[in-house]
Specification:
By secondary structure, this protein is an alpha+beta fold. It has 13 helices and seven strands. A five-stranded mixed beta sheet has the order 1-2-5-4-3, with helices on both faces. Strands 6-7 form a two-stranded antiparallel sheet. Strand 6 and strand 7 form a beta hairpin. The model has no long low-confidence stretch (mean pLDDT 85).
């Protein structure tokens, strides 16, 4: 969700979570819901909303002087252990109740004290979890894959390139970048079904090796055929896609009918409903795509009706001559003008 650049990073977070929580609990009543977020979402309004709606949370806190005093004894203990062991890395975790000035009550804060070669490192996490401090912190930092997805969206798809002067234009750009992410991630998951190593491919690599490849696309009535070079750097990925098994999705459909149940079964109604696709593929799709009706720029006067009549005549002549594929027939007759003239001249009554 795009927000103005002059507001806090946590703006609208409660609004979004409220909608998500409603959808989750409608689908899975009674499910336990918990959120995990970094210090950009450490605001009292979010804590209060989570507690009021029985939502667990583990949220990073921005260090301050009061938190540093809480962690000082643990950090000193970590430094002593590191010095006694010859300067090795030492990581300790503990917890303490903490209440900021704007909070109505104290809350549980888990903090980590770590001694590294680069120097000491302390981190603080506010949580409602009852696990041990180190387990809470490990669960908080175990979000690397989610960070990688965000980097894919920002870097590979340039999701943060919002250079328009209008807010809603930039918001629409965010929507387009998100749709592109979903499409590429779907391809990556299909690749991962055939090769587990492919799941680690970044989206910019996937885009360069899989999509930015010269080829030819042919639109046929029942399918789209893609012709690629016989050898190119991304060819192994295409072979993986071809080998991956598609997961069928059962999308329910609904219809209203005047036929009584004893006169038409559900299977009969399904066949009747699907029967119109033969008309779509054999007539409408051919007119719109093959004969270019959708791309026509003729709009004034009676010209659209005249051109539509010419398309109908062309389609009728080709069907009458027995051509099974209209696109192939047009290519054949374009290369043989005399045959096209003969076809028109022979269009008398049989």
């Amino acid at each position: 969700m795009l927000r103005p650049g002059t507001v806090h990073g946590s703006r609208f977070v409660v609004l979004v979570l409220r909608r998500l929580l409603r959808a989750l609990r409608a689908a899975w009543p009674g499910v336990a819901v918990a959120i995990r977020a970094d210090g950009g979402f450490a605001v009292p309004r979010l804590y209060a909303w989570c507690e009021a709606n029985d939502v667990g949370y583990t949220i990073g806190l921005v260090p301050n002087a009061a938190l540093a005093r809480l962690a000082a004894p643990l950090l000193a203990a970590a430094e002593r252990q590191s010095a006694a062991a010859g300067g090795v890395k030492v990581r300790l975790a503990d917890e303490a109740p903490y209440q900021a000035g704007s909070w109505p009550a104290a809350r549980r804060v888990v903090f980590k004290a770590e001694v590294l070669a680069e120097g000491p490192n302390t981190r603080f996490v506010l949580t409602t979890r009852a696990a041990a401090p180190l387990a809470v912190y490990d669960g908080y930092v175990d979000r690397g894959q989610a960070e990688n997805w965000i980097k894919d969206w920002k870097n590979a798809l340039q999701g943060d390139r919002l250079s328009d002067h209008r807010f809603w234009a930039n918001a629409f750009r965010v929507l387009l970048h998100s749709a592109a992410f979903w499409l590429l991630d779907t391809l990556r998951r299909r690749l991962a079904a055939a090769d587990r190593e492919a799941a680690r491919v970044q989206l910019d690599t996937l885009r360069l090796r899989l999509l930015k490849v010269g080829g030819r696309v042919r639109e046929l009535p029942g399918r789209v055929r893609l012709h690629l070079a016989s050898s190119h750097p991304g060819e192994p990925l295409w072979h993986l896609l071809a080998a991956a098994r598609l997961t069928s999705v059962n999308n329910p459909g609904y219809a209203v009918t005047s036929r009584a149940a004893d006169r038409a079964s559900a299977g009969d109604l399904l066949r009747v409903n699907r029967g119109h696709w033969s008309i779509e593929n054999g007539s409408h799709w051919v007119r719109d795509v093959v004969l270019g009706e959708d791309a026509s720029l003729i709009r004034s006067g009676a010209a659209p009706r005249v051109v539509a009549a010419c398309r109908n005549l062309t389609l009728a002549l080709l069907r009458r001559a027995g051509y099974p594929c209209i696109a192939a027939a047009l290519r054949t007759l374009a290369a043989r003008p005399a045959a096209a003239v003969a076809l028109v001249c022979s269009a008398g009554p049989r």
